[in-house]
């Protein structure tokens, strides 16, 4: 009974050996490094990769030539003769946006949908015979174009008599949130702010109740406010993040609408326990609403904003205000189209293509974390240096330094570039706290602090070189770099 015929014994031994070899191969595959907490949610990652999104400020202020209405406006003033939300989507497409956000109600309290909770809405206007719904037309036009929808509902309401009565107004506001988040399909972003005039009535907003209601109604939505919880205000309306910009903050240190928090919002916090990346909101015109005497910013300014927002780990929220006819000015769409064409010109060609990549070290001897991953154009692959750092270093611990170097092929080594693109694999946390860029071993052509989702260095002048080395320092675990690119920006100063 205990014996085995030789042929079967040999076969059994071979099978066992094969299984053991397979098991050993699986065991020796190097796993990814531990995340450095906090890390983004899937919805936050999708938002970050959008890079450019669009805002549409339209409402009573459009017809009264103001920025902040009084709340005493006559709904009869709202009469856009040619409103066409599909044309608004043309503006968004011209800018390359994938998400569009509508101001459903501004501070004057006039609602762009026929709310059941107030008479101060499009229902009381002559537009569409009182049967119109801007929010409906906006959402339908966006989805027909393959764009995601966002909404802004101003907390400050200068019209409604309940404003100033804490319970009554918060109930009113929540009821309108419920209308917007249940009546218009999926909403990808909801916008809250703390804007309020100096002489406004004292009012306590129940933000936490609002946030939890939003989550209940739309589970995959991103909530924007000074302190998120998903996306934070960048601290200015110029479209400019800090030169140091962390996606992390401590939400406990932020009070929505409170003055004095702008710098903290602008730079973030390397010790932050909450992942709340910044969104840079700016209008293409001087005002948020359309004014006949204003024109759009020139291309040079829009590109400067892009480098200071998307190029500093943010998403750029560009506002394009429709005019009194209900259309975005053709001149504004032309500027947005010029802006997108310029970005395509700059970033459509990567002058690092064909390079070979080497690094100070590679996790697991290369494998799935080789230096070459920074050149493959994928978000889900990245270079990881070999390091004993476990991602949980204490304050004051030694800063680990690593480098990655691109060696350009002879065919492009002499082609100049003036933009260096670096991207972290932020799905496992933001890590880089300092970095420098060197060309052919000479003095650094760029140096800065954070990287995040994307860091763009626009150099003072084009440079040509065979090797480009990036030195990275981090005490929050080994840096995970998903991409390095080189580009030529012909629109930079001195290039035109």
TrEMBL record:
Signal sequence segment: 1-25
Q: Where is the Glycoside hydrolase family 29 N-terminal domain?
A: 76-339
Keyword Repressor present in the record's keywords: the answer is: no
Is Signal among the key words of this record?
yes
- This entry's Enzyme Commission designation comes to 3.2.1.51
Question: According to its record, what are the GO cellular component terms?
Answer: lysosome
Coiled coil regions, renumbered to chain:
none
Query: What is one GO biological process annotated to this record?
Result: glycoside catabolic process
One MF term from GO for this chain?
A: alpha-L-fucosidase activity
- Keywords in alphabetical order: Glycosidase, Hydrolase, Signal
Name the family. Answer: Belongs to the glycosyl hydrolase 29 family.
- Protein name, entry field: alpha-L-fucosidase
Q: What is the scientific name of the source organism?
A: Oryza brachyantha
């Amino acid at each position: 009974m205990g014996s085995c015929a030789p042929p079967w014994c040999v076969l059994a031994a071979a099978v066992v050996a094969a299984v053991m070899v397979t098991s050993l191969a699986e065991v020796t595959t190097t796993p990814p490094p531990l995340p450095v907490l906090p890390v983004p949610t899937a919805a936050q990652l999708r938002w970050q990769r959008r890079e450019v999104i669009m805002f549409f400020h339209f409402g009573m202020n459009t017809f009264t030539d103001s920025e902040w209405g009084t709340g005493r406006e006559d709904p009869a003033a709202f009469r856009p003769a040619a409103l066409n939300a599909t044309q608004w989507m043309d503006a968004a497409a011209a800018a390359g946006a994938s998400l569009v956000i509508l101001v459903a109600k501004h501070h004057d309290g006039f609602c762009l949908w026929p709310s059941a909770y107030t008479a101060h809405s499009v229902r009381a206007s002559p537009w569409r015979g009182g049967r119109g719904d801007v929010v409906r037309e906006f959402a339908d036009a966006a989805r027909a174009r393959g764009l995601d929808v966002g909404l802004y509902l101003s907390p400050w309401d200068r019209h409604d008599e309940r404003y100033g009565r804490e319970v009554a107004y918060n109930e009113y506001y929540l009821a309108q949130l419920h209308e917007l988040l249940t009546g218009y399909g999926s909403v990808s972003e909801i916008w809250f702010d703390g804007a309020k005039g100096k002489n406004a009535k004292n009012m306590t907003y129940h933000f936490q109740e609002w946030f939890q209601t939003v989550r209940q109604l739309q589970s995959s939505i991103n909530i924007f406010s000074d302190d998120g919880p998903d996306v934070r205000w960048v601290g200015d309306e110029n479209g400019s993040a800090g030169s140091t910009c962390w996606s992390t903050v401590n939400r406990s240190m932020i009070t929505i609408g409170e003055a004095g928090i702008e710098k903290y919002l602008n730079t973030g916090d390397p010790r932050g326990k909450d992942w709340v990346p910044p969104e840079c909101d700016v209008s293409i015109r001087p005002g948020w609403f359309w004014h006949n005497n204003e024109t759009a910013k020139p291309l040079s300014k829009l590109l400067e904003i892009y480098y200071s927002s998307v190029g500093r780990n943010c998403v750029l929220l560009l506002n394009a205000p429709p005019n009194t006819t209900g259309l975005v000015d053709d001149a504004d769409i032309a500027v947005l189209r010029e802006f997108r064409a310029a970005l395509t010109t700059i970033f459509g060609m990567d002058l690092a293509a064909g390079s070979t990549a080497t690094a100070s070290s590679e996790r697991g001897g290369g494998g799935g974390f080789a230096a070459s991953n920074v050149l493959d154009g994928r978000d889900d692959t990245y270079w990881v240096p070999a390091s004993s750092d476990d991602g949980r270093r204490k304050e004051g611990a030694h800063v680990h330094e690593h480098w990655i170097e691109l060696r350009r092929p002879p065919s492009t080594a002499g082609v100049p570039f003036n933009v260096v693109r670096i991207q972290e694999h932020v799905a496992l946390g933001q890590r880089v706290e300092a970095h420098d860029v060197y060309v052919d071993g000479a003095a650094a052509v760029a140096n800065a602090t954070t990287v995040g989702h994307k860091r763009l260095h626009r150099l003072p002048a084009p440079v040509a070189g065979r090797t480009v080395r990036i030195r990275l320092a981090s005490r929050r675990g080994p840096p995970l770099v998903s991409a390095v690119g080189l580009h030529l920006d012909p629109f930079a100063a001195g290039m035109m």
